Amino acid sequence: MSDKPVIGVVGVGYVGLTTGACLSHLGYTVVCGDVDEEKINRLRKGEISIVEKGLTEIVNEGITAGRLEFVVGATEVGERSDIVFLCVPTPEDRDGSADLSFIEAASAEIGPVLCEGAIVVNKSTVPVGTTIVVDEVIQRADIKVVSNPEFLREGTAVNDFLHPDRVVVGADDRGAAEKVAELYSSIETEIIITDAS
Ligand SMILES: NC(=O)c1ccc[n+]([C@@H]2O[C@H](COP(=O)([O-])OP(=O)(O)OC[C@H]3O[C@@H](n4cnc5c(N)ncnc54)[C@H](O)[C@@H]3O)[C@@H](O)[C@H]2O)c1
């Protein structure tokens, strides 16, 4: 991994677009992928369908600077990134538990193509222990899975991402957790590193 990792984002909704645009604003090169081709085509032109204060500006800033790119699907994100954030939906199942099928599908797509030693980050809202689910789908000893839950609120997403009360990063691999925590080092906040369970 070079000094500044290339960031990947899978799922460019509220959380993914905010994460990608904000990390690009912090100086990282970010590749964002989504299965919704129409959404990607609009985003490439800087057109955003959600209303979030400041988001249009930082998306366009990233595109103009060549640090923020949008691609269709997750494969290219996996191929090009050192740290990949999974920001796909986790709707409630009929029994009230989180439906992890989007997480599993995205993990299955990127698993075979991830760069050697890449880190996969769960940013979706998932139950404790979901790093194991991702790990079992990817089945690669060189890939570490980290949990970094997002607490942003719709409407104030950019501000919540750039000025959070705290950032929580959990992983069984301390080195991988520290690499993810490092992404937030220019933000003034408390960073809590824990194990994944
Ligand atoms: N919206 C919020 O306020 C908020 C806040 C905190 C956490 N979360 C959590 O973050 C996660 C994402 O939420 P969101 O609101 O951003 O969802 P969203 O529905 O706005 O966006 C999810 C995106 O993922 C894409 N997607 C689905 N499967 C994909 C795949 N295999 N490959 C590529 N793209 C794929 C969808 O097309 C969609 O654009 C959920 O777990 C949610 O609970 C949401």
Layout: helices, strands, pairs:
Layout: E1 7-10, H1 14-25, E2 30-34, H2 37-44, H3 55-65, E3 68-72, H4 75-80, E4 83-86, H5 101-110, E5 119-122, H6 130-138, E6 144-147, H7 157-162, E7 166-170, H8 174-182, E8 190-194
Parallel strand pairs: 1-2, 1-4, 2-3, 4-5, 5-6, 7-8
Helix pairs in contact: 1-3, 5-6
Bound molecules: nicotinamide-adenine-dinucleotide (NAD).
Q: Give, in order, the helices and strands.
A: EHEHHEHEHEHEHEHE
CATH superfamily: NAD(P)-binding Rossmann-like Domain
Second-tier CATH architecture: 3-Layer(aba) Sandwich
How many independent structural domains? 1
The span between the termini is 26 Å
Total strand segments: 8
What's the level 1 CATH class? Alpha Beta
* Helical percentage: 25-40%
In CATH, the topology is named Rossmann fold
User: Which structural class is indicated by helix and strand composition?
Assistant: alpha/beta
**Largest sheet, described in full?**
6 strands, parallel
Q: Which molecules are bound in this entry?
A: nicotinamide-adenine-dinucleotide
